[in-house]
Amino acid sequence: MRIIISACVFLVLCSFSAAFDPLDPTGNITIKWDIMSWTPDGYVATVTMNNFQMYRHIQTPGWTLGWTWAKKEVIWSMVGAQTTEQGDCSKFKANVPHCCKKTPTVVDLLPGVPYNQQIANCCKGGVVAAWGQDPSAAVSAFQVSVGLAGTTNKTVKVPKNFTLLGPGPGYTCGPAKVVPPTTFLTPDRRRKTQALMTWNVTCTYSQFLATKHPSCCVSFSSFYNETITACPTCACGCENKNKCVKSESKLLSVVGVNTPKKDNSPLLQCTRHMCPVRVHWHVKQNYKEYWRAKVAITNFNYRMNYTQWTLVIQHPNLNNVTQVFSFDYKPLVPYAAINDTGMFYGMKFFNDLLMEAGPTGNVQSEVLLQKDQNTFTFRQGWAFPRKVYFNGDECILPPPESYPFLPNSTPKTLIAPLTLFISLFMFLLF
Fold first, then answer.
1. Residue span of the signal peptide, if any (predicted)?
2. Residues whose CB falls within 8 Å of the CB of residue 378, separated by 6 or more in sequence, listed in order
3. How far, in Å, CA of 421 to CA of 408, rounded?
4. What is the largest CA-CA distance in the chain?
5. Tell me, what DSSP letter sits at residue 252?
């Protein structure tokens, strides 16, 4: 019995730890419902989705939001979003609701819809930027008119069982909690108004729930060693090994081969690691007071363009970044006393789009870092990152013993036999 209880406790702890990101401990997506007015049989609410994650965004094809009604509510109309199914509305004779399902599924509208179907922060195809990258674009909103719902704070019941796909699995949403009503400032900023009722839903992300395998890997190289430390074999699993495509394949010339699938299944270039994305860190140059590293991101997925991509790197010398070339950079300081993590992302309209696999499927930059003479060293892999995240998912790093080492750090156990052999050879020769 003790073993069973211990196992249950362990699984619970693992599930909680999987949803906790030590580099972004407060990151979450908060969904806020603000009831703005009452109707004869319900209310009109503004639903706002705020992405408070520093480096994880929602990319195309965008978010999908779902919930379960507490009573027999229906959606009369929506602005800025729509449900994917109407459901059975046969009992309504005159006005037919927008959706009669007990468990509606809502998606954002696409850009370019008529103005009478838009509200502020809507209609972006469900794409939501990361908070650390662009706070102004880290929000999405829509308006919903709900019927058969009650017309007072006491008769309205909050929905249950919220789900969020962003665009795939990985998010877990807590219960809706009634909070103090949201206050708003009028455009002239001289008067405050407030919602009639407000509740919040908090959703957190877990890479463990999102995918069975990692989605990226890391390789290393340096100027002081010819060895290139490649990504581990099958770092992202080898399920797609039989479906991968060689770079010279005629399949790549077929029209429509680059079109994304509904389930986002990849079409990968054949590689040893079989990852959609590889991040390469190269120690490039050594100066008296500075050193330089080159970062390259390569896309091996023929069906995916990564928009608004982010790259997070943890390295002890990121507290002394002097200059970053051709990427934008922002330090991440989740803990005030430690400054060893930074976020790299593309410059707008320049390289914020990582193209599909092929000749243009890569972006790269260089980082100039100032040396701290008390801590700086090239020995024992110090110059390489401790953690790497691409689009919020942690990448697989090579094993530490395979890192490029300094030529003068060759183990003595390897030097001694070689020296003995050379000495013996010279003795026999002379």
1. 1-19
2. 222, 224, 283, 286, 406
3. 19
4. 110
5. G
Q: How far apart are the first and last CA of the chain?
A: 77
Half-sphere exposure of 425 (CA within 13 A, CB side): 6
CA dist., res. 224 & res. 406, Å (int): 6
pLDDT for position 7: 46
Beta bridge partners of 193: 184
Give per-residue pLDDT as tens, 279-327.
999 999 999 999 999 999 999 999 999 999 999 999 999 999 999 999 9
Of 34, 47, 40, the residue nearest 150 (C-alpha): 40
SS3 call for 121 = coil
Using a cut of 0.85, tell me whether the model's pTM lies above it: yes
Cα–Cα distance between 22 and 12 in angstroms, integer? 18
Sheet hosting strand 225-229, strand order edge to edge: 225-229, 216-222, 277-286, 290-299, 362-370, 321-325
Q: Which has the closest alpha carbon to 31: 158, 206, 150?
A: 158
- Per residue in 67-101, pLDDT (tens digit) is 999 999 999 999 999 999 999 999 998 899 999 99
In angstroms, the Cα distances linking 156 to 32, 48, 57, 73, 417 are: 16, 19, 32, 10, 82
Q: What is the DSSP string of 287-312?
A: -SSEEEEEEEEEE-BTT--EES-EEE
Going 11 to 13 to 16 to 18, the CA torsion angle's sign is negative
Give me the mean pLDDT over the 41-65 stretch.
Answer: 96
Q: How would you class 112 by CB atoms within 10 Å of its CB: exposed for 0-12, middle for 13-18, buried for 19 or more?
A: exposed
Cα–Cα distance measured from residue 74 to residue 294, given in angstroms and rounded to the nearest whole number: 55
Strand intervals (E) in 321-390: 321-325, 328-332, 341-345, 353-354, 362-370, 387-390
